[in-house]
Hints:
- The chain has helices at residues 43-57, 72-76, 111-121, 129-137, 183-197, 212-220, and strands at 4-6, 13-17, 20-26, 34-40, 61-62, 79-91, 103-105, 142-150, 153-163, 166-174, 202-208, 224-235.
- The protein has 2 domains: 4-62, no CATH class; 94-200, Aminopeptidase (3-Layer(aba) Sandwich).
- A 7-stranded mixed beta sheet has the order 7-8-9-10-11-6-12, with helices on both faces. Strands 1-2-3-4-5 form a 5-stranded mixed beta sheet.
- Helices cover 27% and strands 37% of the residues.
- The mean pLDDT is 95.
Amino acid sequence: MRLHVAGEWPGPIVLRRGLSLARARPWNDDASDVSVRLARGTAAFLAAAAGTLAEMTGGGVFSPALYPTATTVWGDAGFREHVRLDIMERRLDGGYGEQQHPIRLAVDSDEAAIAEIDERTFEGFWRIGELGIQEALTATSRSIMLVADAGSEVAGYAVVGAQFGRSFLQRIAVAPEHQGAGYGRSLLARSMEWASERGTGTMVLNLRTENEHARGFYERAGFVASGEHLTVLRFD
């Protein structure tokens, strides 16, 4: 059965074959690499979709960050581990820390500043771009984007979601010129408050194994290593 492709790169792409379905988008705003999500389908369908995307874009094709138990179909489709992410967690039982800076809800006019902060804060592969940020906002049934202001400009942002009694810090970033001034701590504290107010008992996040700076930041906020990890796979 023929693979049907809808959409125009570098916009979002939908791939179908029978009842099988996958969605793809640029990995970030400055690369030809692809992020693909399997909604339903077999390893054979996923391999065909990944091969089509690789040929279409000329870039690498990557999975979302997956728990090891969810990687079987991806491995059978020819994906191999590219990076590993450690999981940290914290009980939302108070003591979230001082919010040194006021935090507010993001509005539409903040989108360009948020995308620019993400681009300047993260390097290469770790940027997710505007489509990635929007995907983070829709990854859970409830979510919010928060921003911290420095005068008239956005200093940083956070995306946090909640689902099934747990909350997820999807993304947090502070512009390089504002780092070290407490904006990240304020965003994290408000994110935990928001999640606690929605009845979630635990917040979960992931980070690069080698990112000791970020690990120390979260440990000081009460997060501990869960002993679990996620993996991002690349189509080989």
